[in-house]
Amino acid sequence: MTTLSVALCNSLKLCPSGSATFWFDGTHFKTDGATQVAGVVAQAIKDQGIGLAAYLK
């Protein structure tokens, strides 16, 4: 997940501190960023064929 999250941030050219995706402290996502990270997590679950994938949209 770390690799996928870093790849997402790099692809969006995000800098944790002061970006549109992170809160001011650089450690928590705003709604838009959290939604994008959730998408990465969901796709990883699907790609790995984890049983939980059956419950994802």
Q: What's the overall geometry?
A: globular
Structural class: mainly alpha
Number of helices: 2
Distance between the termini: 20 Å
User: How would a textbook summarize the main sheet?
Assistant: none
**Share of β-strand residues:** under 5%
Percent of residues in helical segments?
40-55%
Average pLDDT level: 77
Listing every helix as H and every strand as E from the N terminus to the C terminus, the arrangement reads HH
Give the topology, please.
Layout: H1 2-11, H2 31-47
State the main characteristics.
globular; 47% helix; mainly alpha; 57 residues
Describe the fold and architecture.
- This protein is mostly helical and 57 residues long.
- The protein is built from two helices and no strands.
- The protein has helices spanning 2-11, 31-47.
- The two termini are 20 Å apart.
- The mean pLDDT is 77.
Could you give a short description of this structure?
Helix content is 47%, strand content 0%. It is mainly α.
